[in-house]
Design brief:
This protein has 383 residues and is mainly alpha-helical. Helices cover 51% and strands 3% of the residues. A hairpin with a 6-residue loop joins strand 1 and strand 2. The protein is globular and about 90 Å long. It is found in: Membrane.
């Protein structure tokens, strides 16, 4: 009688006894029949549990373990928020002409505006601190009066934030560390001279001290100059571009550069380059905003992406921006060639300035400019 089952020899070792490290022998099962009958059986696989590796970090020294990955600030630094901020920041582009409502600055001659821009760059650097802050207040009130509410609130908020950061950084960092050198001049008592009397007004070089940081008069001067100059440059240029068309600015610059023709300067190429640049600024802002809105509208689940995938998305974002900008530049060049432009900048005529004439707004602007320059000279001399 043939037996269809094989008997295996099972050995059980006590858990307390150590396993011998001596030579090992293979124990073969005993078959009721020949070994070929057992080899003809179909093999089968036993399920094996998948080994998993979990890393935990200790939150304290008491032996407790906690998952450290939950402390990574993924939601606060989400790429979706960054793209929304980019789309919101470019919603009101700098350098865009605002045709309505028509204000006092729209009727001022563009040549006078360029003179104002030059004066607002020089005056804050060469005037008293009171005059610097006065120019900041003057430009703030002029922006509120001239620009629409949503535009001036957006622009003033960002420019004030940048100027405030410069003021705090330079004020505390320019003279915050005390010098390590000592004066080599001997005291007056050793030279037989009387001591200098103390200041009657209570002069103090150190204005404020915040721990290791010191806010001095030198820091105040440097910080106020840099912050006020930054504010006046950005906001005055924004006001000029918002109330003046690119053609008017290009024509005004051409009027100032005409004497340089006798020196061999290509004035026509400079003016045409400026005109194309002013036209192209708004396109750049539009592309940055449109591509950011396109990514946000696709509702990408950023939490499921790895760090490298997120970086790759941002690389694709910037690549798409540059690709669209280059496409716009090629379309502009093709449009100029189709309209007959063959590289001669002198053939590009601008007629806007021929229609302008000096009026009451221009005389008032020149009078205000003279008052500002005179006040800056007097403040630097008498204060």
């Amino acid at each position: 009688m043939n037996c269809k089952h094989g008997a295996f020899l099972l050995l059980a070792f006590p858990s307390s006894l150590p396993i011998s490290s001596g030579p090992k022998s293979v124990i073969y099962p005993k078959f009721c029949t020949s070994p070929s009958a057992f080899l003809q059986r179909k093999p089968f696989l036993l399920p094996v549990k998948k080994a998993t590796l979990q890393i935990r970090a200790s939150a304290a020294d008491n032996g407790e373990t906690a998952n450290w990955s939950k402390w990574i600030p993924t939601s606060a630094l989400a790429a979706d928020k960054v793209l929304r901020l980019i789309a919101g920041a470019t919603a009101s582009p700098i350098g865009q002409f605002i045709s309505s409502p028509t204000t006092f600055l729209h009727s001022v001659d563009p040549r006078i505006k360029l003179v104002w821009l030059l004066a607002l760059v020089v005056v804050p650097a060469r005037s008293h601190i009171i005059m610097r802050f006065g120019l900041v207040i003057y430009l703030t009130l002029l922006s509120i009066w001239t620009l629409p509410k949503d535009v001036w609130m957006d622009q003033l908020g960002r420019v004030y934030l940048l100027s405030g950061l410069l003021f705090i950084t330079l004020g505390l960092g320019s003279d915050g560390v005390p010098p390590l050198v000592q004066s080599r001049t001997p005291p007056p008592a050793m030279m037989g001279l009387p001591n200098l009397p103390a200041s009657l007004r209570g002069y103090s070089y150190v204005i404020m001290k915040l721990g290791p940081l010191t806010f001095t008069r030198k820091g105040l001067s440097v910080a106020s100059t840099a912050a006020c100059l930054t504010f006046t440059v950005f906001q005055s240029a924004s006001l000029c571009l918002a109330t003046t068309t690119p053609e008017q600015l290009a024509c005004a610059l051409r009027w100032f550069l005409l004497p340089l023709r006798h020196l061999g300067v290509s004035v026509s190429e400079i003016v045409l380059t400026l005109l194309l640049s002013l036209r192209f600024v708004s396109l750049v802002f539009d592309e940055v905003r449109n591509v950011a809105l396109g990514i946000v509208s696709r509702r990408i689940d950023w939490k499921q992406l790895t760090v490298m995938e997120t970086i790759d998305m941002f690389f694709n974002y910037f690549r798409r921006i540059f690709k669209n900008i280059f496409n716009h530049a090629e379309q502009i060049s093709q449009a100029m060639v189709v309209r007959g432009f063959k590289g001669d900048s002198g053939a590009h005529k601008i007629y806007f300035l021929s229609e302008s004439s000096f009026g009451m707004a221009d005389f008032v602007s020149l009078l205000c400019l003279a008052l500002v320059i005179g006040a800056a000279i007097l403040s630097d001399t008498f204060i």
